[in-house]
Amino acid sequence: MFNGMIDNNYTEEELNDIVCKNGLLQHNIDSTNGLLLKPGIQINLVGRDESGNVVGGIMCNTYLLCLDIDVLWVHESHRGVGLGYRLISEAERIAKEAGCLFAITTTFSYQAPDFYKKQGYEVYAVVDDFPENICMYRLKKKL
């Protein structure tokens, strides 16, 4: 039985110990014989308009030979003209060249599930317990 205490007072160093140094990250690296770190690149791309203004972008991580799309955003004024498609296609291309076998992402019903489906992503999980009929979708695609 655990007899210590639990509190919400901690230092950044303590958090780093939990997540990285001696904690979960190291356990996961050891448990996957290092595969967790492959290819281990970030893929961050920015879309700009003719004036150089940022109008979209994609932010991704890679691990276990997987591309994980964390953020994909296109400004309202540039939606429906192919920017999202170009961003996701370029991220997938880079990931595939680096050795990734598939891609995953999460989106909500009020975001872009149909966009991802048009790009060849398949829904593999739905969480429909959010208020106001909001659903969360987990999607995947073989690269």
Shape descriptor: globular
Number of strands: 6
Structural class per helix/strand content? alpha+beta
Order of helices and strands: HHEEEHEHEE
Unreliable stretches (pLDDT < 50, length at least 5) are none
In the CATH hierarchy, the third-tier topology of the largest domain is known as: Aminopeptidase
- For this structure, what is the CATH homologous superfamily of the largest domain? Gcn5-related N-acetyltransferase (GNAT)
Kindly report the average pLDDT value.
Answer: 94
What's the CATH architecture name of the largest domain? 3-Layer(aba) Sandwich
Number of helices: 4
Helix content: 25-40%
Task: State the major sheet.
Answer: 6 strands, mixed
The first-to-last residue Cα distance is 47 Å
Radius of gyration: 19 Å
Task: Write structural notes for this entry.
Helices cover about 25% and strands about 30% of the residues. Strand 2 and strand 3 form a beta hairpin. The relative contact order is 0.12. The mean pLDDT is about 95. The protein has four helices and six strands. The protein folds into two domains: about 10-35, no CATH class; about 40-140, Aminopeptidase (3-Layer(aba) Sandwich). The longest helix has 15 residues, at about 85-95. The protein is an alpha+beta fold and about 140 residues long. It has a six-stranded mixed beta sheet with strand order 1-2-3-4-6-5. It has helices spanning about 10-20, 25-30, 85-95, 115-120, and strands at about 40-50, 55-65, 65-75, 100-110, 120-125, 135-140.
